[in-house]
Amino acid sequence: MTLLADTSSRLLAALERGESLPARWYTDPGITEREIAQVFRKSWNYVGPLAHLAEIGDYVTGYAGGVPVAVVRNENGLAGFVNVCRHRRHEVMKGRGNAKSLQCGYHAWTYDLTGGLRRVPRSTSEPNFNLADFPLLPIRAEALGPFVFVNLDPDAPSAASLYGPVLGLIAESGVILDTLVHYSREEWRSNANWKTMLENYLECYHCAVAHPGFNAAIDVRPDVYTLKTHGYFSSQSGQVRPAALAGKSKVELYDVAGAVTQSQYHFLWPNVTININPGFPNLSIDVWTPDGPNATKGLSEQFFGPGVSEDFAKSLVAFNKQVAAEDDALTDSVQRGLLGGIPDTGRFLTNSEHLVIHFQKMIVEAVGGS
């Protein structure tokens, strides 16, 4: 199937009118392939917390547009690499940890912390073989506050230039980023297109209907719950409900009283979300990655301020998981509707879903029509 009969200009004009992207943008494998090439391989991809890269030899691994990547702390700072051995393309490092060298587990080709190839078994008898010709391929790695990102595109703007102001917004919440402690990391999979899931995240029009716990904790009325675009990121913010603070909510909640009185939910193009809930200082990061056109795989990392109690940590994680389960039920249903293909387009409310429209415009501008 071709990508689209429509041109980018026609799609953008339709979005301006409040019309959604056609259904096949969420179900066509060809579109997903274009997104991986034009979006994920040209954008900043989150790989882990900077605290996991504090000492020389610390490393984290991840993926950027399906490409295995690694970031290592060496004597010069952070170094990013394509995490693929130059021999048979086996992934060199796994997970996160600390190492004196980077050794592939297939044939023991060994690289130093700057990516240089230093040892290859049996290579001394190989004619015309030069270790210097086969280093790990470098990529860009940058820290944004306490978070580390990589980018395969050498010409992309810096992470700080695209997302930097979000750090100031987070500071306004009462969360002190430099004090956050990593608590947990979890991988997950859902049965909806990655855009379907993020578009659900980018509006709270559904919150009063579909999230009884969230609605009881946070005031989601449109006159007080704010949604703003900031170029390559967008933000939502709401205040904790007085009834929840007084312990008079009709729905059982975690303890919302604490230093953080303002909820914040930030989206960083193309697929990272940062979440702050009222109560004891907390922050979570979610990463949403295409798993074919009709599924999404991702990871969630939870952080807390120092001194968090285990009871609070567990109750907030459970709260977040409940909201996520409610969202999964919604987006799975939307994906089934998209797979049916009728109707081909939907109609947004532009005053309540403008962050979704902004996101879809960015997709069209990155991927283009046919």
Question: Which key features would you list for this structure?
Answer:
single chain, 370 residues, alpha+beta, Rieske Iron-sulfur Protein, seven-stranded antiparallel β-sheet, 10 helices, 17 strands, 27% strand, globular
Describe the structure.
With 370 residues, the protein is α+β, with helices and mostly antiparallel strands. It folds into two domains: 45-155, Rieske [2Fe-2S] iron-sulphur domain (Rieske Iron-sulfur Protein, 3-layer Sandwich); 160-367, Naphthalene 1,2-dioxygenase Alpha Subunit, Chain A, domain 1 (Alpha-Beta Complex). The chain is 27% helix and 27% strand. The protein is globular and about 75 Å long.
Care to give the gist of this entry?
The protein is of the alpha+beta class and 370 residues long. The chain has helices at 8-16, 29-38, 159-163, 165-172, 194-201, 207-210, 212-217, 242-245, 310-340, 354-367; strands spanning 45-49, 58-64, 67-74, 77-82, 96-98, 102-103, 110-111, 117-119, 138-144, 147-151, 181-190, 226-229, 233-239, 262-268, 272-276, 282-290, 296-304. Strand 16 and strand 17 (296-304) form a beta hairpin.
Give the topology.
Blueprint: H1 8-16, H2 29-38, E1 45-49, E2 58-64, E3 67-74, E4 77-82, E5 96-98, E6 102-103, E7 110-111, E8 117-119, E9 138-144, E10 147-151, H3 159-163, H4 165-172, E11 181-190, H5 194-201, H6 207-210, H7 212-217, E12 226-229, E13 233-239, H8 242-245, E14 262-268, E15 272-276, E16 282-290, E17 296-304, H9 310-340, H10 354-367
Antiparallel strand pairs: 1-10, 2-3, 2-5, 3-4, 4-9, 6-7, 7-8, 9-10, 11-17, 12-13, 13-14, 14-15, 15-16, 16-17
Helix pairs in contact: 1-10, 5-9, 5-10
